[in-house]
Each structure stands twice: as C-alpha cells, then as structure tokens.
Amino acid sequence: MIDHIRRILLVVVIFVASGWLYQQWQSRQGGPGLFDFIQRDGSKPESFTPAASAKLDPAQIPGLARISDESAALAAAVLPAVVSIDTATINRVPVRDIFGFLRGYRSGISPGLGSGVIVSKEGHIITNYHVIKGASQIKITTNDRKSYRTEVIGADPQLDIAVIKIVGGEGEFPALAFANSDEARPGQWVFAVGNPFGLTGTVTQGIISATQRRFSDNANSLLQTDTVINPGNSGGPLVNIRGEILGINVAIYTGAQNHQAWQGVGLAVPANDVKRTLESIMNRGAPVFGFLGIQVNPEPVGVDSTLGSSVGALVEKVTPGSPAAEAGLQEGDVIMRFGSRAFGSVDELLLLIAKTRPGQDVPIVVVRNGTITNLKARIATRPAAN
Hints:
Number of strands: 20
Low-confidence stretches: none
Radius of gyration: 32 Å
Strand content: 25-35%
Largest sheet: 6 strands, antiparallel, barrel
Structural class: alpha+beta
Mean pLDDT: 83
C-alpha cells in the first residue's frame, strides 16, 4: 500500500516539475506560461482598441453603394409577394413484424415544402406542380408571417406549373407582374426568391447563364441561372432588376447522383410559358395546347438553306381538315421555320406548335421539291382525343 502511494506521489512530482520547467522555458521565449491560463482571473477587464471607422466611405465607392442600396430596394419590393408553401401528403406505410414479413399498412404523413409567388390581387399563386402533387393539405405563409389555407385552381403537369388561391384572405394581395422571357439574355442580372430548406424570405443574386436549355426530348425549354437555388426554392420566382417574374424556379441540375445541393446550375420555366398556362387555367380551367395537324418524322432532315438553320422536319402525314391542310402543307414538305423562329430538333418544333395560342396566324417556311415556299396557318385548339 505504501509503495503504491509512493508511486502516485512520484508521478505528481514529475508532472509538477515538468510544468515548472516548461513555464521557465516559455517565459524566456516571451510567451504565456502553462499556468498563466489557469491563474488568470476571468473577472479582470481586458483592454482592447476596436477599429474607429470603416475602411471606405460610401462616397469613395458610389457605384457599389448604389448597387447595394438598389438590390435591397428590389428585395423589399419583391418579398411581400413571395410565399412559403407547406404540404402534407397521406401515404401508405408498410408494417412489418420482427421477422421482416409484411403485416399490413398504416397511414403516414409526409411533409413537403416549396415556394410560390402571388400573381393577382385576389391571391392567385403560381408554384410548381410537383410541390403540391398529391398533397392532402396545402398551407401558405406570406412574408409577414401570416398563414392561409388554399384551394387548387388548376395545373399543367407537363410544364410543372400549378395555380392555387388563398382562401379567407381580406383585402388586396401584393402581386408581381410577368416579364417577357423571350427577351432574356445570358449575363442578365436576376434574383431568386423563395424558401430554401425552409428558410423563408431568402434572396439570392446571379445571372442568366443560358436560354433555351433543354435536358430531355420531352421537356420544355428552360432558363439556366447561376443564382443559388436549393430544395425549397421550387415554385419561387426568378425576377429581373425591375422586380418582374422572368421565370419560375423549377429544378437543380445536380450532375452527381443524389447530390441535391446547389452546384451553379439552376433552371426556371420561362415567364411567357407560365403566363400562357396561367391564362389558360383561369379562362378554361385547364391548359390549352396549339394544334397544327401534322405527323412528322422524328429524325431531323438536313437541308442546305439560307434560312439560318440546316435542321428541318419532314412532314409524313397531314390531318384532313386541320390547320395544316387548310394552310396547304403537304406530305413530303420539310418545315424549316415556324413563326419567327428556327428550331434545333423535331421535338422542339412540336413544342413550339403546342405552346402557340389557338387562333393565332403563324407563318411557316417549308422546302418543297427543292424550292422554298411560304405558308400561313391558323393554329387551332388541340383535340382532346390527341
């Protein structure tokens, strides 16, 4: 027992001696000693001298100061019209026993979140269809922290746009106007406003990186932006410097599998497509698509032409009595331009037709037997059977 106590005392002595030797060495080096931190009185005031002023006066950087103030003014003007969307979806959850065998199902609730933007004084809201799809309960919260119930007015799943309306609101709601997204240019400044990761009232700034961006054959053209967009931003607006809706944020291009965070490539549905769908839903209760009445070969045709594009679409069939037949389109014609635009693929031509407003007269340029021919077709409403 006495030997054991001696060993403990020896260890303590060695530790204290080592600390004292380190203290003497540190003092000679001019730094704090080992025991200085232990002996310091925490209640003793510590003297310090803070910086007296900023390094730069706003008058020295008037351009940056003005941009900062104007960005803040833009955010203040836009935020009242942007809402957070919380959803609840009831689904069936499998119930298994301790051996892993299925014993039945029970009801479970899956929460979801997204963003939206008010587009009418009556409280109509644009958001993504995937934000509210299958939801049994939809609640929106405005920027002033007021919550409202909503009702679904209509949706366009293909465009991933839905229209909902505030229920029980009083007075007029702040609304944003639409910009002409056909005038969007790469390099143009934009701001994304929304509810990323449930953080309400978030504003990020960037530029339009590209227009007419498409990632699959059956997808609409999208605007690409480097503005920070994360889960929860879906359905929120991408606005220009005038506070107009240039697009509705819809997706994040992840690049890596299962990587759902921002990587510099955000995508938004162009405002013109959103506005067209909104008007169709409000006037007819559902989106309306244009109809020309042609069947085309899915493979593009290469044509030596001076029309600004070498891609054409070969007409294989013309529906009798359709706008195409009345315009004089024939089997074997190669469509080179639709309206004022050339197209990069056959599928893009079909999307252009679908997005054209029924009743609109559209010039069509075709190559027939090696000769350029100009036609004009009045677009009709796509029949339900098609």
